[in-house]
Structures are given as structure tokens and as C-alpha cells.
């Protein structure tokens, strides 16, 4: 028998509603970072009361959508081969990272608009740790610069990825050129040569 302090499990229909709402939020916010909770509820096929029963505020819903996107992205990034030469591993990681950032650029915009300062970056903890480890290894191999702090270099990578997504969104960078621009920019920042 479970202890009296155990949290009751949600009903299966509540779990399905949450999954539909989060999925609809990801889709709606990807196409329009200003999508309303009404837009999302309608896309999920639920009423506003159901949506607000699970997510008290739009910010809570946006954070749940971003966390869901990051979990899915983590599955992709965790499968990237980072062995061998750090520069080559960086290219592989950036190719996968760029695809994820480009796919979720509007979702990131929505999150940055409603979440507290630093929360978006905080939610990127695992991708940041992966990049920090790759930079550390690249520095040991003599491939990446030693004159700047590793945390700064991870931040620069983060800003270049998200900045490029903004440039594509604003039409100042062609989507088909973005991956190459991102990879070359980050490699030039990290390079010791």
C-alpha cells in the first residue's frame, strides 16, 4: 500500500489533455510567438477552463512547451557522436543544434517574452554542459582558444545560435545559409588558429 504522502496519479484523460495542450502550444508558438491561450486551447481541442486547469498562466504553458521541445531536442543531441577531433565533433553538434534552434526559434521568442530573465538559459543546462565539455576537450587538444573563459565561450555559442535564428526570422539571413554561417562563426570564435 502506498504511503499517505504519495501524490495521486492524474487521470489518464488529464494526462492526454496535458499532452495535447503542450503539443498544440509548441505548434502554435512555433508559427506565432504571440499565439494566445485561446488559440492554443482551440488547437488542442480543449476549452479554456481545461487549459487553465493545468496551466495557471500563459507563462506556465510557454515554459511547458519549451521544456517539451528541449526534452525532444536532448534526445537528438545526446545521439551526436562527439568522439575524435574536437573541431569535427563541434561541426556535428552545431549541425544538429542549429536544426533544433531553427525549428523552435519562434517558441524561444515566446519564452523570452514571458519567462523571467535567465530562465530560458537555465532550461538549456544540458546542451550548455555538453558544449562546455566539448570546449574543454578542444582546449586540451590545442584546437580551441585558451585566452577566454570557457563559460564565456559557451555563452557566445548560445548567443550566436539564437541570434542567427532571430536573423532568419527577421529575413536578414537566408534560412538555407544559416547553418553554414552559424558553424563558421562559432568555429572562428573558438579557434586557436
From TrEMBL:
Start and end residues of each HTH tetR-type domain: 15-73
Keyword Transcription regulation in record: yes
Database matches in Gene3D superfamilies: Tetracycline Repressor, domain 2 (1.10.357.10)
Keyword Transcription regulation: yes
Keywords carried by this UniProt record: DNA-binding, Transcription, Transcription regulation
Domain of life: Bacteria
Family matches, as InterPro entries: Homeodomain-like_sf, HTH-type_TetR-like_transc_reg, HTH_TetR, Tet_transcr_reg_TetR-rel_C_sf
DNA-binding region location: 36-55
One Pfam family from the record: TetR_N
Name under which the protein is recorded: TetR/AcrR family transcriptional regulator
Lineage, broadest ranks: Bacteria, Bacillati, Actinomycetota, Actinomycetes, Streptosporangiales
